[in-house]
Amino acid sequence: MPLKACRDFCRRFGIGHRAGADLLRLLDSEAKHGSPRQRAAMEALRAEAARGTALADGMNQNSHFFPPLLRSMVKVGEATGRLERTLLKLADHYEQQVRLKNDFVRAITWPSIQLILGIGVISLLIWIMGNVTPSAGGEMMDLLGLGLRGSSGVLVFWAYIAGFFAIVLAAITAFQKNIGGVQNTIPLLYKIPVIGNAIQTITLSRFTWTLALALDAGLNPIAAIKLALDATDSDYYRSGAEDAENNIRAGGTLTDALQATSLFPDEFLTQVGVAEISGTDSETIDYVARDYDERAKAAMKTISGVATGVVWLGVAGAILFVIFRIVMSIAGVYNEALQGI
């Protein structure tokens, strides 16, 4: 279920539930929104609800569509009688995720278009070199020095580009799926200047948002921390769930439990500890979540700036390479012409 669909569903359903609307009528309305897949999922959910199945249980039967966080929070909301409040808070969480994603996409859209145009210009030049015959006959000079000409040369050039992006995509996928335990390198990733701290801030923002939601909905600290660690979508963070649980069962506070995981920076733990003195667990983490929400916005701008810079460098590098090769090719022709003088 896409982020925007999650946001809109939680908002509509939360408002409707708070107004006292009938559950089945709400689900009938939801079955009219979104993609065909979403409408089918809502129709199946409505059918389960008509049989007396709890909303969370109905979602679990379609777990490949409804995300884990939504299913978990709906279950907590139903169990505590605070479903509408939980859904509206969850809508705010998804709104933040949508906003961060949109900010990033907007920042890299224009540089990406320029990169595509640059690839198109080079492709056109390769095609011209293979299909345009000089007046003196023969082939055109290989201005790029790549040995690529004509339509076949363009296809080879595109294959190189596709191979590069395939490698990048494979690396990202391997990291997301933690293939070979690659996520254990996350502490090293956080040490990268500028971008490392930004990535860590966004991860902590997602963690604190989820933890605040879970505690506010009435989930016990052990289950809340486990859910929040899972929301980071990282096996590196999930590995701390057992240590946090053992600490709480031994009488530790929320801060103690998070410190026992050895996953969180001292600044974050200090902030949680200071806030914990003055309020309940839910109030504590809600305060920290709001602070990290603001930090995440700045962090996303940093990452967007870095990504934009990388794309710009790619475009500039391609342009400079083409200019350099053309100049060197022309200079070589003049040198050959002047050798006999």
TrEMBL record:
Recorded family membership: Belongs to the GSP F family.
Membrane-crossing residue ranges in chain numbering: 107-130, 150-175, 310-334
Topology of the protein relative to the lipid bilayer: Multi-pass membrane protein
One GO CC term on file: plasma membrane
Database matches in Pfam families: T2SSF
Protein name, UniProt field: Type II secretion system protein F
Keywords attached to this entry: Cell membrane, Membrane, Transmembrane, Transmembrane helix
PANTHER family attached to this UniProt entry: GENERAL SECRETION PATHWAY PROTEIN (PTHR30012), TYPE II SECRETION SYSTEM PROTEIN F-RELATED (PTHR30012:SF0)
Organism field: Neorhodopirellula pilleata
Tree of life domain: Bacteria
UniProt-annotated location(s): Cell membrane
Domain Type II secretion system protein GspF: 9-129, 210-327
